[in-house]
Amino acid sequence: MIKSTLNEICVDACRQSLVDLRPKILAACDTEKDSIAFRYEDTIFPPTYRVDLLLLSIDVYCYKDSRDTGKYCDLKLAEWRRRRDSNKPLACEDCILGPWRAQQMTPIGYEQDRADDFIVSTSSCSATGYEYVKPTKYGYSVATDVVMPVFASASVTPAE
Question: Which domain of life is it from (predicted)?
């Protein structure tokens, strides 16, 4: 993304509005009835799914290099594709580890395999300050043997 686009998207008030919207959605939607629209394979997601995705996107794309320049990491990564003046391995940069941590901290972005890789990466980089608490599971699984209502079409039974 370009800086002007990031400046338009990465507004604290916008993010806060989304945070404030979550409890309103939860209060308005009956999870037992309304969340079925957010079913994917054997998982049912909460009615806040789309807001949670937007919040995760903001946290990742609006992440700024807090340990060096304070620039948007998206812009720094674009610069690094052309030229990079650091001897530090790219995988050890805050612009890699910070957004990765942001993903792993949220229930919607957490993946166990990526969490394991993150631990290995931060350890091999001797990186500190990237600790986080494993989030609660996002969505819940539906047993595969649950009988879902099936609407049968009208059929004619041949007379004998």
Answer: Eukaryota
pLDDT tens string 4-13: 999 999 999 9
Could you give the CA distance from residue 98 to residue 109 in angstroms, rounded to a whole number?
Answer: 13
Q: What ranges do the domains of the chain cover?
A: 3-141
Closest alpha carbon to 136 in 102, 100, 98, 110: 110
Residue at 42: amino acid letter: D
Report the SS3 class of residue 24: helix
Residue 59 CB neighbour total at 10 angstroms: 19
pTM as predicted: 0.79
Joined together, the tokens standing for residue 78 give 């674009």
CA–CA dist 73, 70 (Å, integer): 8
